[in-house]
């Protein structure tokens, strides 16, 4: 891996992926995104990993897709390269994925953070879709996810003006889970990931899938999906253990079976 750093057990059952093109503010070139896709796929299959934290550095989570790499391309080149197809793996990741964001989260960087399940932001984080300023528009989910998170009026203003919002504004409007001092943002993400990693991996996976359905399907279908997955947790030993532990007033031990 050239552009990302992967630590499989950064904390017990929690993996860390760090975007690592600091000089380019972690601009997301094709190779970086392919590496990210492969790393997520591998961690998703690793039974020792129960949650994943994705981060950049203090100055930048990511300043967007690599403009230099895209600059000379035609529409047909872009169709052939289909660069956002590598992004599908992020959405397909079954384990909880938490973005720890500091500094710039712009364009594809904002979209990458929003594709994660939760966002812990540092006080210095700024979120924006500045593509309009370089004559394009968001291409990796920005118009959809920002609109669902912030509502039409705010998303429209951000997408059409390219102006960013601060971490505090993002928190106020529900785009991020919480804002913490910059030196604590990664630790706070680990804390959240660690809390989830203690719970049943089976139930966590099904619950994540169900919450995502709220975004992706009509309510009726989402409710049906959720109910089916709830019933399905009863096929796991973790459900038996979790409920037995509650009744016996002890801590459960979850094994992912
Ligand atoms: N692509 C390629 N290189 C980038 C980049 C990007 N998105 N963002 C920053 N860089 C590079 C700069 O070119 C510069 O490299 P050099 O030193 O070789 O010139 C280096 O990173 C540092 O950047 P700056 O000198 O510009 O740093 P700054 O502090 O003055 O400004 C910034 C920071 C405001 C984030 C500015 O870099 C910027 O505006 N970046 C582009 C943001 C952007 O437009 N993102 C959207 C990209 S398109 C997209 O993402 C499409 C999509 O939907 C996926």
Supply database-style keywords:
12 helices, globular, 2-enoyl-CoA Hydratase, Chain A, domain 1, single chain, binds acetoacetyl-coenzyme A, 17% strand, 10 strands, EC 4.2.1.17, 46% helix, Lyase 2-enoyl-coa Hydratase, Chain  A, domain 2, 257 residues, alpha/beta
What does this structure look like?
With 257 residues, the chain is α/β, with parallel strands linked by helices. The chain has helices at residues 30-45, 67-70, 75-81, 88-92, 108-115, 142-150, 152-161, 167-172, 185-197, 201-216, 219-232, 237-247; strands at residues 4-11, 14-19, 51-55, 60-62, 97-101, 104-106, 118-122, 126-128, 165-166, 178-180. The model has no long low-confidence stretch (mean pLDDT 94). 46% of the residues lie in helices and 17% in strands. The chain binds acetoacetyl-coenzyme A.
Global outline? globular
By DSSP, the count of extended strands is 10
CATH superfamily of the largest domain: 2-enoyl-CoA Hydratase, Chain A, domain 1
Strand content: 15-25%
- CATH fold-level label of the largest domain: 2-enoyl-CoA Hydratase, Chain A, domain 1
Attached small molecules? acetoacetyl-coenzyme A
N→C terminal distance: 32 Å
Determine the number of helices (DSSP H or I, runs of at least 4 residues). Answer: 12
Largest sheet: 6 strands, mixed
- Supply the helix-strand structural class: alpha/beta
Mean pLDDT: 94
Q: What order do the SSEs take from the amino end to the carboxyl end, as H and E? A: EEHEEHHHEEHEEHHEHEHHHH
- Estimated helix fraction: 40-55%
Radius of gyration: 19 Å
The level-1 CATH class of the largest domain: Alpha Beta
